[in-house]
Amino acid sequence: MAIDRFPLVIDQRSELEINSGQLVIRNKKDITHIPIQLIQIMIMASPCHFSSSLLQKLAASGIVVVILPTRGSQEVAWVSPGLSTRWPIRQRQYLYRNHPHMAWLWVEKKIQAQQHVLKLLGEPVEKLEQIRPPETLMLEKILGIEGAATRYYFDRLAKHVPPQWAFAQRNRRPPRDPFNALLSLTYTLFTTEAIKVAHGFGFDPWVGFLHKPYPARPALALDAIEPVRPLIDLWCLALTQQLDTKAHFYQEDSKVLLNKAGRSIYFSNWARDRQDWHNGKSTIQCLYALRCWSNVNSVLSS
User: Fold this and answer.
1) Most-buried pick from 19, 28, 116, 257 (CB within 10 A)?
2) What are phi and psi of 126, to 5 degrees?
3) Is 25 helix (H, G, I), strand (E, B) or coil?
4) pLDDT tens column, 267-301
5) Which CATH number, 1.20.120.920, 3.20.20.80, 3.40.50.150, 3.30.230.70, labels domain 87-301?
């Protein structure tokens, strides 16, 4: 298991460089030096100026970088390390890409997690408990089951989101209300950590079993966060007690984003809570501990 180093969040306009093994961050207020071996992932939440060699050096040190959009039309961008030398496992991964049996592993665990969260909220789960894998495992049928389960789940979850958050259903690209903005951002941060976990297991994070390949989409990392999405939702629900929809968000075109004051509250809570995310495990430890990985390894090794 990889060492659980800390995440670095850069949330003000800065200039970045690497000097003598340290990341140097310059902004209007000060200059900060951070040894790069202490950084696990790096989150750029504000515009930064840097050279391409900086990204190369970070990637060579095993650091996953996520660049969050600062304008409504921009997309999330990830820069990850090169693939490991474990070619045989990746070769089998490529052969099984979008394989229905492998896809069901992630969906089944996600539905179980949805049941867990709804039970905590006092909501009925019988409809989810009755879900079974399709008689003929086909990716389209699996996606249909996952979609129906998720719609039911969010219908129930929406009842617990404060009314002023105007949350009725899951929407994205762009998120059109404050709660969806929280969900999208937190899913992105987990995807960033899942990229690192996939590398740790020797997989290619850009080729998935459930999510289809798409440019700039880390499909396997998105697979890996499916079973933890309901816990993310629960965390975001708790965070609504600390954030104000008017004071901490702004709208640009049809997209809703956290403003600087909101991001300060958000990242402070995330940096603290990710250290003890669930059952005494950090976020990345929870991702490493997913049983889906052992199931995937078992299938690929057979």
Assistant:
1) 257
2) -55, -40
3) strand
4) 999 999 998 898 888 898 899 888 778 778 777 76
5) 1.20.120.920
